[in-house]
């Protein structure tokens, strides 16, 4: 199984730490964020990982050279940062022949079993399945009763049974690359809504329930 770790960001919410250290190498419990993610993916049976890089990329490259995780790890340097959507599009050479692949944000810590989410994806065969949860967030998404993504929540949109927060974990079908989106800066959620509205594709939400989740892109969380 293959996966991608999104690790190119500037880590602005973690400044001043990320002025000299890339977010992926910021340590949580004495282990760099990216190592936490690699080890979890490895435990789930992933044997090939693509990591996109931009901000202070050379530090991450050097770190990976010194480590031996026993799986193949490929890095893609982005001269101009491509955002979450552009980064996935830019990695098509590695995933276009896979039935599906995992994508995770380097700073998304969620104690879910990837195998359960994969089974859910296989059951419904959507364009993508995204991990979501009932929790406080400023960027909620709205799903219908069948957990099909409908729209973004409006500002101060409260008390909606179908409102969930996104946990930064996706499973994408290789059909995503058949939509022929240009490789440019874009947000993956924006592409999902385009796929829904323009191509009549289905994006499923996978409710992870009450599992532990923490956004490690926040300074107050990384210091816990």
Question: Explain this structure to me?
Answer:
The chain is of the alpha/beta class and about 220 residues long. Helix content is about 25%, strand content about 30%. It has a single domain, classed as Spore Coat Polysaccharide Biosynthesis Protein SpsA, Chain A. Strands 1, 4, 5, 6, 8, 9, 10, 11 and 12 form a nine-stranded mixed β-sheet that branches. A two-stranded antiparallel sheet has the order 2-3. A two-stranded antiparallel ribbon has the order 7-13. It is globular and about 45 Å long. It starts with a strand and ends with a helix.
- Helix proportion range: 25-40%
Q: Which stretches are low in confidence, meaning pLDDT under 50 for 5 or more residues running?
A: none
List the total number of helices. 7
Shape: globular
What is the CATH class name? Alpha Beta
Return the structural class: alpha/beta
Whole-number tally of structural domains: 1
**How would you characterize the largest beta sheet?**
9 strands, mixed
- Kindly report the name of the CATH homologous superfamily: Spore Coat Polysaccharide Biosynthesis Protein SpsA, Chain A
**How many angstroms does the end-to-end distance come to?**
32 Å
β-strand number: 13
Task: Indicate the CATH architecture.
Answer: Alpha-Beta Complex
On the 0 to 100 scale, the average pLDDT is 93
- Here the CATH topology equals Spore Coat Polysaccharide Biosynthesis Protein SpsA, Chain A
Strand content: 25-35%
Radius of gyration: 17 Å
H/E element order: EEEHEHEHHEEHEEEEHEEH
